[in-house]
Amino acid sequence: MNHRGNVSICVCQVSHNFDVHEQLTKHLISGGYAVKSLQKCDVIIAFCPIVSHAGTDIKAALRKLPDSKPVVLVVLHHTFNPDETVPDSSRLVTSSNVILTVDCLFHESQGGLLECPRNEAAIRDILNKLHKHKEAPKKRCQGCCCIC
Asked: What is the topology classification, in CATH, of domain 8-135?
């Protein structure tokens, strides 16, 4: 955690996403979250566009991320339709360090992140998870195998 008690985030693009990560990061910064380097952040926000099969793309994205930090996984579905029904990607995530998975809709010709209830809910869910992460007591070392 940083010195003010806020959670710092690191934004990771696991593949090209037409700058959707920048749009969503603006919402997080306005929510009071500081963007830091991977080494200095508390939580990783990872963006995973679906380009072939959701399960394969998500597994490939998670392999690129360190296991040592909590991850909020933003799964990006490419569509024109702001009312598109997409499957819940969280059911495909088995990594224990992923603390939240959200599905968002985007299209590069419509300004990136679509304006729709799904994306608004995803942003709210991310902000809520980061807020809860900020309030959670830090785990204390139990003296088992590390030097703290």
From this structure: Rossmann fold (3.40.50)
